[in-house]
Amino acid sequence: MQEGAGLGLEALSPTEVEKRVEDAACAKAALPTGRCFVSAMLAGAFVAFGGMFFCLFLSDATLPFAVQRLVGGVCFCLGLVLVLCCGAELFTGNVLMVCSRASGRVPWRAVLGNWGLVWLGNLAGSLLAMALVLLANVQGMNGGEVGATFVSVAAAKASLGPVELFFKAVMCNALVCLAVWIGFASRTVTDKVVGILLPIAAFVACGFEHCVANMFFLSTGLALNVLGGVGAAGAVALGGAAANLVLATLGNVAGGALVGLAYWYAYRGKEAR
Fold first, then answer.
1. Is the dihedral of CA 214, 217, 218, 219 positive or negative?
2. Cβ of 204: how many Cβ atoms within 10 Å?
3. Transmembrane ranges (predicted)?
4. Which end of the chain is more exposed for a tag (fewer CB within 10 A), N or C?
């Protein structure tokens, strides 16, 4: 299939995808506040469901390390599958709005306003999902090992050094935005699901930092540690959790912007040049 043909069942060309990303950014910037926030809440909850699935699998300590990381990463893919296939506003994916900003189609005010609103909506959805998970006593599964995993995952994230954390977040959203890019190139639901599996599984398996996923991991681990007494006292520090969200957010913006601007420069249409 020739570039720009736009016919058949093959994936869209990179130039077609870049235009599609820009068009989507314009639509996102024009979303009414209420609809945008609720859609962002859905995305936060979807990613939380992926995080729940990931921790459930990791709670089996009898599995080899590589198997745990790989299959756990595939389990986490549930979150982005739901976001891309069901439709929702995810902060890390919306970093690709830089393409439309670079072409002058969306002003910085609209881009930053969308990012701020979506980040808050993702946080609200993550906290709602956390409450549902705890009320459903998912943490009690496998003799309480799932709850211990929630706490250990949160404790590890809250104790990361700032440089390591930032660059883990850069790497994370580079892979996430590549997965989203594949989603834009896809023509069917099957294409989307298959296309995002490896990039998302890779970032999870490598222990990279995703700010929206961390909203769920850190809040759940903190609640279980402080209120539920799971794990050693003070295992999850509030200050460390807050610092994680700030640096992970900044790193995610940097990683996603690098991918978006590189593809914008390489494949933007003639009208943008």
1. positive
2. 25
3. 37-58, 70-92, 112-135, 165-184, 196-217, 224-243, 249-267
4. C
> What CATH number was assigned to the domain covering residues 14-268?
1.20.1080.10
Percent of the chain with pLDDT over 70: 95
Q: What is the mean pLDDT of the chain?
A: 93
Q: Which residues contact 85 (CB under 8 A, 6 or more apart)?
A: 189, 192, 193
DSSP string across the chain? --TT---SSSPPPHHHHHHHHHHHHHHHHTS-HHHHHHHHHHHHHHHHHHHHHHHHHHT-TTS-HHHHHHHHHHHHTHHHHHHHHH----HHHHGGGHHHHHTTSS-HHHHHHHHHHHHHHHHHHHHHHHHHHHHTTGGGGGGGHHHHHHHHHHHHHHT--HHHHHHHHHHHHHHHHHHHHHHHH-SSHHHHHHHHHHHHHHHHHTT---HHHHHHHHHHHHHHHHTS--SSTTSS-HHHHHHHHHHHHHHHHHHHHHHHHHHHHHH--GGG-
Q: Which residues lie closer than 8 Å to 164 by C-beta, 6 or more apart?
A: none
Residues making up the chain, counted from first to last: 273
Question: What is the C-alpha to C-alpha distance for residues 66 and 84, in angstroms, rounded to an integer?
Answer: 27
**Domain coordinates of the chain in residue numbers?**
14-268
Q: Give the global pTM.
A: 0.93
